[in-house]
Structure formats: C-alpha cells, structure tokens
Design brief:
The protein is mainly beta. Helices cover 13% and strands 53% of the residues.
C-alpha cells in the first residue's frame, strides 16, 4: 500500500515560501495586538482625564422655582433620596417625584440610616419613626426627650433620653419591643454623650463623660446583645478610659469595627471578640470637621500654619484606618460631605467638588440664592443643586459651551 504524504513542505519543496507566509501572519497578529493595546491605553487615558480633569464652567439644564428650602434636607437612600424637614418626610426614587410622603410636626428633626432602614427623630421631642423604601415601618413614642439615636440594618433602634434626674439608653427591636433600658448615673457611670449600634444589631457602644472638679474622664463602654437580645438584657463586653479627653462621636464602619472620634485622636476598635484598640490616628492640626460615608472617614484640618499650601488639609481613611488621601486645599466651606465618591463642600453660593484622589473637579460660585445641598445624579458631572429658592439640574463643562455657540452664530 502506498504511503500518504501530509507534509506540505516536502510535498511542494517550498519551505522558504511557507516561512515567509508564517512571518507575515505573525506580523499581522502582532500588529493587531499592538493596535488594541494602543487603543486600550488611549481609552484609559481618556477615562483618567475625564475623571480627574477640572471643570471651569457649568450649565443649568433644568430649573424649578420653589418656596423656601430652608431646613429641608436630602439624604441618598435606596437608589433615591429621602427629603425631610420639620413638616414631613418623603422618598423620591426619581429626584423631585415623591413615591410617598408622610407629614410630621418636628421641632428639630434629624435622620440616621442603615439601609434598608432610616430613622427620623425629633431632638428634644418624644417621637421616633422608622422607614424603609416602602414607607413607614413603625413609630416609637418615648417618655423623655430624645438626645441622640441610631439604627441598625436589622431595624434595631438605640436612643439616648434625657430624664429628670438621670439619662437613659434604650434599645428597641424592629417589632417595637424594649429589649434594653439602662439608666446612667452622673455619679457612677457619667453622662452618656453619644452611642452607636452595630449594623447587625448585636453590639452597643456608649461614650460616657464624668467630671470630677477640674478633671474629666471619658469611658467608652462596649455592650453585647448577641446572646441576650431577647432575654435578660445586655452584658458589658469591655471598656476603655481616657482622662481629660472627650469622645463625642461613635461610628460602626462595619459589624466588627467601631470608630471613636476625639478632639485630637481617632481610635479604631476591633469588636469581633473582646474589644481591643487596633489603630490610633492622631493629628497635630485642629480638626475642623468630620464627614463619613461610602466606606470613607474624612477630616478637614486647620492648615493655617501652612497657608501657602491652602487653608485646609483634607484626609481620607478607609473603614479600617488605612490612609487613602492627604491633600492641602484652599476653599470656602460651611458644610462638607461625601456623596458618590465625591467630596462636596459648600458655603453660601460657593461650591468645591473633589474626587477621592484629591483632584478638584470644580470650584466656583453658582448662580442662585444660597446652596442648601449638592447631590450627584446619573450622568457625567451632573448634579441636583438645591438653593433656598430653586432646584436646578447642573452639568459641569470643560469648556464654555455658550461662548462656542455665540461664536458659531457670529460666523
């Protein structure tokens, strides 16, 4: 039987031509790869420039005149917004369109959230209201004036009340049942300044202040609800004392990390077991403001010692205490917050917007009567801006589009 020959090179005796064909094919393949690499780098460069470039101009796409927006607040929630004030609260899935609206009569309303819940309380009043995206979940009526409150992702509510002779810290479950009622004595535990409940609703932390003559002491006390939430109360898991040092704010960055904010230092505690300090952050400069959100803990520091670099220094830390940003900036601000990974500071009509990398995205004065809030919405550099007398949809621009149109019309 004859043997079949499959080797093309032997059969045709054209080995050199085949090698040329292979080289040509390889050059084409490498050319395609280089082209796609260059295209990818170009796209990355464009995205980087778009995300970090500074806009000098803005336009208003939509503008709605309103009655006074004084004392009206907005908080992002469940792919929408909670709008609240002294007269009511409403959920807006699309900005300006209410999914539901519930009237209230609060003298000094404040809102805290742990999605899927938000808690609206009347500071100095006796009412708290729990909501989710569908509407009101439950009312809570307490005997004494509300001082401070927080809520967990399980709907567990913590509240500090100012009693006639002592203060109380109470905890309610989502069904409205009182599961803990702790009275604090100024002579024994000290005055409860603030408290926080963990997202999973199993841990409570309280900052107590005790004053003895000219000296003071803050005690950060950790309580455990994991075993006793529905039985016999709450157990003390541990505590830390700080002489002549006030801790006025507590924040759970996750179920097992508690952040305590003092006048010149911040303490990060691991509360997965017995409470322990895992990190301490100190600043030489005075802390002007603290802002929280989206996994970040932010500080505005007084930078008057280095005014040539900027009046303020902004520092960002992750939820476990790792530093993410440290930059100097010159800006005017009365309030500052972080929304959609953007740091937004406002004062009167002046607005400064930075990304979390410290790049200024916009800084300037907006046309309107005193800014109440700036909220990022869908679209590149697009915001809803609430002024005292109107609400506008603002888009930032890298160039003056109105001037370009004017030049085109003149031609």
């Amino acid at each position: 039987m004859a043997k079949n020959i499959y080797n093309f090179e032997i059969f045709t005796n054209k080995k050199e031509q085949l090698q040329k064909i292979h080289r040509k094919q390889r050059r084409k393949e490498w050319g395609k790869r280089i082209f796609f690499i260059i295209l990818l780098l170009f796209v990355v460069l464009i995205l980087y420039m778009l995300n970090n470039s500074r806009c000098e101009y803005y336009i208003y796409k939509e503008e709605t005149e309103t009655e006074s927006n004084d004392n009206v607040h907005y908080e992002s929630f469940a792919d929408g917004y909670m709008k609240y004030g002294q007269n009511g609260i409403e959920y807006q899935k699309s900005f300006g369109v209410a999914e539901w609206n519930i009237p209230v009569s609060f003298r000094d309303p404040f809102l805290v959230k742990a999605e899927p819940y938000v808690l609206l309380a009347d500071k100095g009043g006796n009412t708290l209201m729990l909501f989710d995206a569908s509407g009101k979940v439950r009312d809570y009526t307490v005997r004494y004036p509300v001082v401070q409150a927080s809520v967990s992702k399980q709907g567990t509510v913590q509240v500090i009340l100012q009693g006639e002779e002592s203060s109380m810290i109470q905890v309610y479950d989502i069904e409205g049942n009182l599961v803990a009622d702790m009275r604090s004595s100024v002579d024994e535990t000290g005055y409860p300044v603030t408290a926080a409940i963990s997202p999973d609703g199993t841990k409570l932390v309280v900052s107590y202040l005790a004053i003895d003559g000219m000296s003071s002491k803050t005690t950060v006390a950790f309580y455990d609800f994991s075993q006793q939430l529905r039985t016999e109360g709450v157990s003390l898991a541990g505590g830390f004392d700080y002489d002549d040092f006030l801790i006025a704010r507590l924040y759970f960055s996750d179920d097992n990390t508690l952040v305590a904010f003092g006048e010149s230092a911040t303490y990060y505690y691991d509360v997965s077991g017995e409470p322990a300090v895992k990190k301490e952050v100190r600043f030489d400069q005075e802390i002007q403001s603290i802002f929280l959100g989206e996994g970040y803990i932010g500080y505005v520091l007084d930078n008057s010692d280095n005014p040539e670099e900027g009046r303020y220094r902004i520092c960002l830390y992750g939820k476990s205490g790792g530093k993410k940003l440290d930059t100097d900036i010159d800006m005017d601000y009365e309030s500052i917050e972080i929304r959609d990974k953007q740091i937004i500071a406002v004062q009167n009509n002046t607005c400064t917007i930075l990304n979390t990398g410290g790049r200024i995205l916009f800084q300037g004065e907006l046309e309107g009567n005193s800014i109440e809030a700036v909220l990022p919405v869908r679209g590149w550099r697009t915001y809803q801006v609430i002024f005292q007398n109107k609400i506008v949809k603002m888009k930032l621009r890298l160039w003056d589009s109105s001037a370009a149109k004017k030049e085109e019309s003149q031609e």
